[in-house]
Amino acid sequence: MITSRFKDLIRRSFNSLGYDIRKLEDKNCDLNLYRDVFPRDSIANKRFYNIGAGDFRHPFWTNIDLRSKWYKKAQGDSEFINFDLFSLKKLPIPSNSAELVYSSHTIEHINDEAAQNMFNESYRILKKGGIFRVTTPNINIEVRAYKNNDRSFFYWIDTYSMPENYNRIKIRMPMNKASTQQIFLFHFASIVSELHTDRTLPKISDKEFDKLFSTLDYEEALNYCTSKCSIRTAEKVPREPYELVE
After folding, report:
1. 204 and 116 assigned to the same domain
2. Is residue 38 domain-shared with residue 100, that is, in the same domain?
3. How many CB atoms lie within 10 A of CB 102?
4. At what angle do helices 206-215 and 218-227 cross, to 10 degrees?
């Protein structure tokens, strides 16, 4: 057994190098809570659904996502419902059967019709009293960051300034070389940003972008930008984060 003194020595050694050692949390520590709250049948049949799940894993949950190159490593050989939200089809799940439906950072990547269908389908499959939770970025904060030229808000700039990363998300240059306008535009309507490598659609310049947000209500400006996107064009390249298409 490792003594507390030896543990402390290891911890201080790693701290001096700028690292911190912490005990790994048990990711399945909530299993008994599920068993206390939900029916055995729902647990056995994994009637808890994560739409746009990415690399999410939980033994009682069923993932719903589109098989993609972006999440190829994370998805691996794991079982999930392969579903394209743009298809506007019904989810292959019985009505009134789900306990919980959750979706995080997904609706900002789809158009209004697909989002409405996702909401309708979530309502259809949920049991009476079931819960549907959605989380998404706060566009109000992003608009404020753009208007204040607060580049520190866009924390992903450094990540997508490395060649292996900016090539992967189809941008023409390191993100730290782009204007704040184009970085913000790429986050919610990427294919019409001058950053995007696609050249089949007209791009929105910094000057045009600034004019939109200075002359229109910000929601109208946002809708104008997304209205210039194209699902068909976007589908020619892998769907990556920071791409909303309308």
Report:
1. no
2. yes
3. 19
4. 140
Looking at the structure of the chain, the number of domains it has is 2
Cα Rg, the chain, nearest whole Å? 22
Q: Which of 135, 158, 175 is the last residue of a domain?
A: 135
Per-residue model confidence as pLDDT tens for the chain (246 residues): 456 666 676 667 667 667 776 665 556 678 999 999 999 999 999 999 999 998 888 999 999 998 876 666 666 667 899 999 989 999 999 999 999 999 999 988 888 899 999 999 999 999 999 999 999 989 999 999 999 999 999 999 999 999 888 888 878 999 999 999 999 999 988 889 999 988 888 999 999 999 999 999 999 999 999 888 876 554 544 444 334 433
Q: Distance between CA 86 and CA 27 in Å, rounded? A: 32
Q: Which domain does 118 fall in, by range?
A: 31-135
